[in-house]
Amino acid sequence: MVWSKANPNFRKSITEEYFEDMVSSVQNNPQELNRFLRLHLNIQTKTETAWIPSYIWARGNPENVELLSVPEIKQWMSEHATWNNIALDNRFYESSSVDVYLNGQQQYWSWFIKQCEELRDEECYAGFDNTIVQDLASLALFFPQRGVILHWCWCPAASVYRRQKEQNIPYGNWWESGLLNSTSPLDTTDDEAILTAMLGNDQYPGILSHFRGLREVCFDRFAARIVYVRLKEFGYPARAYPQNFAGMNEPCRKLEAMITDRQLFHGGNTVLEWEAGNVVIVSDRDGKYRPDKSKSTQKIDGVVASLMAVGGWLYPEVQTISDIRGLK
Q1: Do the beta carbons of residue 260 and residue 252 sit within 8 Å?
Q2: Are 208 and 214 in contact (CB under 8 A)?
Q3: Which of 218, 222, 262, 273 has the most beta carbons within 10 angstroms of its beta carbon?
């Protein structure tokens, strides 16, 4: 039997009944599954405490989507150019590579565009994780009645192709396919580009103004001041969300349960899928857990933003979420 080859203690200190019970119990528990594979079957998982396996995350991909053509997708993107700012670049119209990358994301964009129209008046909660030079700024909208997460992210323009070359991660491809936005030509995050996408301008609608059922925007306190102040000026309820075990445990468990039970849909966003595969979970003595950026293999900002959005729905009370202090 494979089990006995993988674990020399099988049928010795570990009974066959115990193994069978463990196999049954971990099938729908991503964190315990990784631990079981690592400790009992000698299978190396991606990271020591990786959270959600890719095959479970894929349960949130769309099914039976009526596909839009690439020209139809490009037309929609050009009408929402600050949401997908490759549409503001000349190569959007001149480079064949953009059409190639969009063709590869045809199913996702067909699903995403449909959601943007169908969910416009649905109750939703936003999570925003801002960034410094080496991270990705991310905005996630969670629609609890539909179990849908919509995702946007930003990267400093000057580092898009540099990161692709140095890290062998397809930032440039993601930008040309509209999944990743660039900000300023400087190697720093441009809050104004993010705010324009969120709030809109005279030419293009804003993300937050488009979704009329928005209840609140939840932030990590870190690096949030400018965006927080501007959103408050525009009348959006904006609150700091704790990144500790108390704030993150239940959102982690809720998101995990929903994706496992096929009740959460992210559309197969490639950037968010990559980030989900990077997440490392840490636990406290009481078994509560949260994502840990310092231990994760790569960027996880979109997942953190998604968890804050879920947390905004789960915890509307002041003892869990509080207004940002000292930033007004």
Answers
A1: no
A2: yes
A3: 218
Say how far apart CA 269 and CA 306 lie, in whole Å. 13
Instruction: Decide: 225 and 268 in contact? Cβ < 8 Å.
Output: no
Residues 6+ apart with CB under 8 A from 97: 91, 176
- Global pTM value: 0.83
pLDDT at 21: 59
8 A C-beta contact, residue 202 and residue 113: no
Tell me which amino acid residue 103 is: N
Same domain for 65 and 19 = no
pLDDT in tens, 143-186: 999 999 999 999 888 778 888 888 888 999 999 999 999 886 54
Instruction: Tell me whether strands 289-291 and 281-283 are parallel, antiparallel or unpaired.
Output: antiparallel
Low-confidence residues of the chain: pLDDT under 70: 1-49, 131-135, 184-190, 223, 317-328
Regarding whether 169 and 27 lie in a shared domain, the answer is no
**84: Cα within 13 Å, side-chain hemisphere:** 21
Contact status, residue 251 vs residue 310, Cβ threshold 8 Å: yes
The number of distinct structural domains making up the chain is 2
Q: Are residues 150 and 11 in the same domain?
A: no
Phi, psi values for residue 238, rounded to 5°: -125, 130
Return d(Cα 231, Cα 210) in angstroms, integer.
14
Task: Match 């079957």 to its residue by tokens.
Answer: 41
Same structural domain, 78 and 147: yes
Whole-angstrom distance, CA of residue 328 vs CA of residue 253? 33
Domain of residue 137, residue span:
61-314
